[in-house]
Design brief:
By secondary structure, the chain is an alpha+beta fold. Helices cover 18% and strands 18% of the residues.
Length: 109
């Protein structure tokens, strides 16, 4: 109570402090992922895929495709083990969605 800066209880602040320098994107801490499959269908931007890792106790892990991530934060809500972290997107503008957003800004209509 009182001084939480989080949008959702127990989750990191949104937006992260580096948002002014780089757009925030999500990243999966793969050691925490239990392959529950909740996050890929939840992501509106197809930014989360499941990858195989046969040597691990959990045989797959979620992975964020940085070019597609918009930093919406929904995956943080989905994950039962808090496997998502924020990271600065230093490739901002390279992905299709961000490129489209930039194109929209440049359009004359
Ligand atoms: S922050 Fe949003 S766009 Fe990025 S991976 Fe999570 S749900 Fe998908
Ligand atoms: S919601 Fe969390 S534990 Fe489940 S697949 Fe996604 S990252 Fe892994």
């Amino acid at each position: 109570m009182g001084n939480e800066q989080t949008k959702y209880p127990g989750l990191p602040p949104l937006p992260p402090p580096f948002v002014k320098e780089f757009p925030p994107i999500a990243v999966v801490v793969e050691e925490k992922c239990i392959a529950c499959d909740r996050c890929p269908p939840l992501c509106f931007f197809d930014a989360i895929i499941m990858e195989n890792r046969p040597e691990h106790k959990y045989k797959r892990t979620a992975v964020v495709v940085p070019e597609n991530c918009t930093g919406c934060g929904l995956c943080f809500e989905a994950c039962p083990v808090d496997a998502f972290l924020w990271t600065p997107d230093k490739t901002a503008g390279s992905g299709p969605l961000r490129a489209a957003q930039e194109t929209d800004k440049d359009m004359d209509v």
